[in-house]
Amino acid sequence: MQKFTALLLILILNSYASVAQNVGISNNQKTEIHYLSGTDKDHLVDWDFFCSEGRKSGKWTSIGVPSCWEQKGFGTYNYGSDDSDKRAKEFGLYKHTFKVPKDWNNKEVQIVFEGVMTDAEVKINAKLAGEIHQGAFYEFKYAIGNLLKYGKDNVLEVKVNKVSANASINFAEREADFWIFGGIYRPVYLQVLPKENIDRVAIDAKADGTIIADVFTTSQKATTVKLSLSDANGKKIQDLKVEKATQSQDKWTVSTKANVIKTWNPEAPNLYTLNIEMLNNKKEVLHAVSQRIGFRTVEIIEGDGVYVNGERIKFKGVNRHSFHPSSGRTTSKKISIDDVKMMKDMNMNAVRMSHYPPDVHFLEVCDSLGLFVIDELCTWHNPILDTKVARKLVKETVVRDVNHPSILLWANGNEQGWNTEVDDGYAKWDIQKREVIHPWSIFKKTNTIHYSPYHSLVNDSYSMEKILFPTEFLHGLYDGGHGAGLDDYWNLMWNTPLSAGGFLWDFADEGIERTDKNNEIDLQGNKAADGIVGPYGEKEASYFTIKEIWSPIYIEDRFITNDFNGIFRLENRYHYTNLDQCKMTAKWLKFDGPEGKSNPKIMAEGIVKMPSLNPAEKGKFTVELPQNWKSADALHLTATDPYGKEIFTWSYPVSTPKQLNSPLIDYAGGGTLLSETKDNSIKVVANKMTYVFSETTGLLQKVMKGSKVIPLNNGPIILSQKDKIENIAVQNLKDKVEITVTFEKAVKSPSWSTIKEYGKDIIKWTVHSNGLLDVKVEFKGYRNLKDYRGITFSFPEKEVAGMKWLGDGPYRVWRNRMKGTKFQVWENNYNNTITGESGFVYPEFKGFFSSVYWTKLKGKDDNGFTVYCHSPHTYLRMLTPDKTQEDKNGRLNPKFPLGDISFVKNIPGIGTKFQDPDTMGPHGNSEHFFGNDDEPITIDLTFEF
């Protein structure tokens, strides 16, 4: 981990490359940056401000820049889908005074705006700097040297209209499915260059070391260009010989080749700095700039796939908004780093910009830490951007972002918002000639269908030769999608040759702190609650499911039994890394009981030798079995990547529930047992415990410990059971009382047409003399069941304070989201979080938990209990999650069993905003097959009050 942290620090420190730092070159030959605003959401500079409408309007005051003015208490909030009569149309007036040195008179001075929402009219000293800029997500600049007063105060005035004068921009940006804001929300700075300068550079650095660079300049004094290459630490490693140079009216095109370089890819994001010096005929440096680059080659091969550096890749991607709850679209480099680190931690390798170009620093971090990027023009459905403005915005997008090695593709808008007249315009500005896609369309070589049902991934339609990668899939509204369904989707995607993976929707809940509503989080109902993480990065269960499923080390599922030989089969799902560069440790663990420590005891620990497997190769590894391995409770395998970062920890129970629980349960001791049947009740008293059962149903009616009521009752009801009771028998034995409830035989399966006799369902209670209470339930399985099989009890939610348990956790599971948990002791306090809607406290307390061995329920009034489950493969149902407010189709609120606490053998899948679980793959299917006619299903529990 120290190695990874050190590498991360180096990458971050070297991620700023917009200003030349060439050794031996004077400041007069460099580009200087002078900020007029602050640099990010946490570093603002106050400007004078006037808002025309809404809150705090009609008077001059001040505002921190950069910012969204709504987050500073001005104007009115709008979401893109708001009705037109509710849409705010305020404008803001900004004023800022600044000085420039006298010696800038012989320089070129430009003012740069990284992003303004939406139309910006800029004046310097009361004179227009240029034409009004339209488009909220694009960098623009003006040459203002002839407008400045050198050595004196200068006045910058900016009028910002929240609503554009261009109707097509409004439809693309202001009526889209995201929050819309107003203001100068990204930094503003002065860029000071020599009079004879390089305007910009565009670089194509190939995997073989070949470099072609366009050096844009209008200088009449420039006669040649000099190149050198530095490493990530700024150390020059090579003077580059210009092999070819051609000059046109506005640029030089030069080519060269670097030696002994390492390529860029997400697994090894090797970066360099290309230093460019423009010289006059005396070999004097007129202007020197530096540009960070990565050597890589991108190819989209028709009917084959997406190739990077000669390797066919699959996108393990997510969509991401530039957003923060407290500041809206104004972010920071720290946010970019945090977001990319979480994506990398989930074993992702790609991100799609949704639905606009991001902050520059986000792309810098993708370069540094390693993510493939799809960069996107902001459009939305129909009508499309008009061609004139679309061409301008395509230019601004590509010119700003052209040199980022992380960018593989351009997206010409989103979901039918494509103006096809500008598809070819990207190549005009992109020296690398990256290809253009239409998200949610079959276009040229690709099929980027959105929210594809599982069956469509077989790709057997008329477009079967297209490269398939959904740019949005498994919509993550509330607790649905994302990890739910991903295991099925990814197994099919991984094994389908023409699949290039896909991009989940989306990374984070886009909840805004409403400054007009006491800073409460607003998610616009079900429109913005789509994240894998919450508004502040709170990790939902799907985070860890994705981490396991997208692990580059894929381990086949297996169980540890007495026949275990230590062998695990695996596949290398990296694209560039041999598995022998990774490490794995094995820990054999022993857990304390409910009253013990949560941390496990390590019985044995060892290093697992990873096999030498190239990408896509399969093999196996062997875990050494210590002499006492069968006495362990669990095996944990933790893999780390070449930088020391954890890939995932897989866990495997070793002991069965019965083996593990037996030493924890002591039936000895106790005193006299008293039982009586009276008033339709069976009452048993043992060692300060009193149990009351119904004489007609056999269900537990009341539990008392001394004089305190333990509110567990009304169980065990056998779910999906309609048989009548045949007999209830009470047997008083020496040290226990047994109550047996026998049901009549069922003679017809509810899902089969044939008549077949089934065994009898049985509930058997055992009250021991020391007060322990056992219940063993045997019931039929039924084939093709669409309802629950198991047992349930009642326990008031208001009495629950928390729980501690041994099993998979700490997150709940669904049938189609089983991965991402770890088998060990967990402890959660009660919460009433509705995923993505309210609370945002994770893990959620309520739901289904898998592989539960024992649970200690904490009551608010010391009225809880401990229950040991001796039956394998049993799910604990803990209470019922509150329903989400906006789930019109019922896809995100699966039906729960009656009662409050249940022990079941099957659980439901969960859907998405657009799909039922049944369309999301085999694990989402609502049918459960219980096919054993020879043995009943058994749930065997021990209660300790």
UniProtKB/TrEMBL annotation:
GO molecular function terms listed in the Swiss-Prot or TrEMBL record: beta-galactosidase activity; carbohydrate binding
Subunit structure, as described in the record: Monomer.
Domain Glycosyl hydrolases family 2 sugar binding: 62-194
Catalysis performed (reactions): Hydrolysis of terminal non-reducing beta-D-galactose residues in beta-D-galactosides
Domain Glycoside hydrolase family 2 immunoglobulin-like beta-sandwich: 207-296
Keyword Signal found: yes
Family note: Belongs to the glycosyl hydrolase 2 family.
EC number: 3.2.1.23
Domain Glycoside hydrolase family 2 catalytic positions: 302-518
GO term, biological process aspect, one: lactose catabolic process
Cofactor: Ca(2+)
Signal peptide: 1-20
Keywords, comma-separated and alphabetical: Calcium, Glycosidase, Hydrolase, Signal
Protein name: beta-galactosidase
A Pfam cross-reference name: Glyco_hydro_2
Chain ranges of the Beta galactosidase small chain/ domain: 730-873
Organism of this sequence: Flavobacterium faecale
InterPro entries in the cross-refs: B-gal_small/dom_5, Bact_Beta-galactosidase, Beta-gal/glucu_dom_sf, Gal_mutarotase_sf_dom, Galactose-bd-like_sf, GH, GH-type_carb-bd, Glyco_hydro_2
GO cellular component, one term: beta-galactosidase complex
